Amino acid sequence: MVIFGLMAPFAKDVTNAGITGLQLATIRIVGGALLFWLVAPFVERQKVERRDIPKLALAGLLGVAAAQATLVVGISITSPVNASVEVTIQPIFTMLLAALLLGEPITWKKASGVTLGCAGAIILIMLGATTGGRAADYRGDLIILTGQMCFALYLTLFIKLIRKYPILTFNRWVFSFASLFLLPFTIRDMVTLDTSLLTARVVGEMAYIIIACTFLTFLLTVFSQRYLRPTVISAYNYIQPVVTVIGSLVMGVAVLSPWQVVAALLIFSGVWLVIKSRAKGKNEIIQE
Predict the structure, then answer these.
(1) Is 99 or 148 the better-scoring residue by pLDDT?
(2) CA distance readout (Å), 16 to 42, 163, 191, 202
(3) Could you tell me which residue, 286 or 247, shows the higher pLDDT?
(4) Cα 244 → chain centroid
């Protein structure tokens, strides 16, 4: 999450330079897929069972095409500070989905946490609506929240599949499927990409987004998914806003308002209550 925390200010700087959110999302996802295929000859591979291919396709749609593309597009519209705070609401979505799909009970801590988290999200959305898009835009906030719901669903549904295949094999397939889902909708944007916008700074920032924030972080995330429960993994999103805020302020691509701080505190408090409400005796480490 320390590495990923710099993605929001870098992505915002790239889109401020003239690259659209859809173009950057496509470059990120297709670039990630190419990197996973480039390293394939140097690592041990495992044949994917035919019955798992539809599951890998759905994982690519939810965890990469939907979640990651909406994140980049949302950052291009709203404030990177808002984006980093909204990403931390993911544990709440994960808990809600666990209750709906896995039948986990709703405790008062969970209910209180959801209420606080939603209140913080509403503040950020209203803030974007009342600033006229100068600092943030509620449309970008809603796009990011939708993406976080998709990623929470991905975390909840595909743990067994993630543990079944080698990390690089899993990522290679999901990123390939994500690219296939995304390209039909973005190919026109890619054809019209103005190459004069690709300055050394923009290319360097995009390289960081592809190599560090995509290739490396997905390797580490999938590795952690083999040993930690989905809610524990998503809880580490707490680190991201700190890195994002510092990076955004240094780069001058965002400002920090008192209401953003209030919203962040509400969301953090809500997530803390949700995390604390997990069932007693439930180990954070997944046992073999």
Answers:
(1) 148
(2) 38, 39, 19, 10
(3) 247
(4) 13
